[in-house]
Specification:
single chain; alpha+beta; Bactericidal permeability-increasing protein, domain 1; 6 strands; binds 2-acetamido-2-deoxy-beta-D-glucopyranose; CG33306 protein; Haemolymph_juvenile_hormone-bd; To_sf; signal
C-alpha cells in the first residue's frame, strides 16, 4: 500500500514537472524550427548566386562548357565527355515538413524537388572487347524527387555539448525521364534503351532506401560531429542566428 502511494506520488510529481518543462520546450521547438527554415531559405540564395569569396560557384543552374572523364575500371576503359551541360532545379525545392522535436532530440524533414534535370551533349568512347562509340544530345530528369530524413542528436547533460547520433536520409522518386539520343541508331530500340535506364534508376533510388540511409548515416554522422566540435547547442544557434 505504501509503495503504491509512493509510486502515485512520483507519477503525480513527474507529470507536474513534465507540464512545466513541456511548455518552454514547445516554444523552443517552434523557434528552432523557424531558425532552421530560415537557414534552408538562405541556402537557396547560396545555390542561385554562389559565394565567390569562398570559391563556391553558382549551382542552380550548374553549367559546364566542356568536361571529359577518363574511365578506367578493369575491362572498361575509355572517355566520357559532356559539352554544354546544364543542371537545373537544385534550388527548386519545397520544404514539405521541418520539425524540431526538442523532447525527443530529433529533427525530421522532407524536401521535394519537382524536377531535377540536366541537358547536355555527350560523347562516349569505350573499349571492352568491342568498341562503343556514341554521341548526341541528352535530357535526363528526376521528377518529384522526395528527400525525407531524420537527424537524431544528443545533448550532454552537464555541458550541453551537441552530438549527432544518426542521420537518416530516404530518397524516393516519382518519375524518371530519360531522353538520350543516339544510344542506338534505330529509334525504337533507342526508346527501349531509355526505358531500361528509367526503370533502372527508379528501382535504384526507390528500392535501395535502407542501403542509402545506412550509407549516408555512416558518412554524414562523423562529418557532422567534426564540424560541431566542442560547441554547445546555444553556440550553434548563436552562430546561425548571428550569421543572418
Ligand atoms: C527542368 O527543371 C527546372 C527546374 O526544376 C524546371 O523549371 C524545368 O521545367 C525542367 N525542364 C523540363 C524540360 O522538365
Ligand atoms: C548520332 O551519331 C551519328 C554518328 O556518330 C552522328 O553523325 C549524329 O550526328 C548523331 N546524332 C545526333 C542527334 O547527335
Amino acid at each position: 500500500m505504501k509503495s503504491v502511494l509512493l509510486i502515485a506520488l512520483i507519477v503525480a510529481l513527474g507529470s507536474c514537472q513534465g507540464a512545466e518543462v513541456a511548455e518552454p520546450l514547445a516554444a523552443q521547438d517552434r523557434s528552432f524550427s523557424s531558425v532552421i527554415l530560415e537557414l534552408v531559405e538562405e541556402f537557396r540564395v547560396v545555390l542561385q548566386n554562389g559565394v565567390p569569396s569562398y570559391g563556391i560557384p553558382v549551382l542552380a543552374p550548374m553549367t559546364a562548357a566542356k568536361r571529359s572523364f577518363e574511365i578506367n575500371s578493369g575491362e572498361f576503359s575509355g572517355t566520357f565527355g559532356v559539352e554544354d551541360f546544364v543542371l537545373e532545379g537544385l534550388d527548386q525545392y519545397e520544404v514539405i515538413t521541418m520539425n524540431m522535436d526538442v523532447f525527443r532530440s530529433r529533427l525530421t524533414f522532407e524536401f521535394l524537388f519537382r524536377s531535377l534535370n540536366f541537358t547536355t551533349n555527350y560523347e562516349v568512347d569505350m573499349g571492352s572487347g568491342y568498341r562503343i562509340k556514341r554521341n548526341g544530345g541528352a535530357f535526363f530528369a528526376l521528377e518529384d524527387l522526395s528527400i525525407r530524413g531524420r537527424i537524431s542528436y544528443s545533448l550532454g547533460v552537464l555541458t550541453s555539448n551537441l552530438r549527432v547520433k544518426d542521420v537518416l536520409i530516404y530518397p524516393s522518386v516519382g518519375n524518371v525521364n530519360s531522353q538520350i539520343e543516339n544510344l542506338s541508331k534505330y529509334r525504337i530500340f533507342n526508346r527501349k534503351l531509355n526505358e531500361v535506364i528509367e526503370e533502372f534508376v527508379t528501382l535504384t533510388i526507390n528500392d535501395n532506401t535502407d542501403f542509402v540511409a545506412k550509407w549516408v548515416s555512416e558518412q554524414a554522422t562523423p562529418v557532422c560531429n567534426d564540424l560541431i566540435g566542442d560547441r554547445t547547442l546555444s553556440d550553434i544557434i548563436a552562430i546561425i542566428t548571428g550569421g543572418f
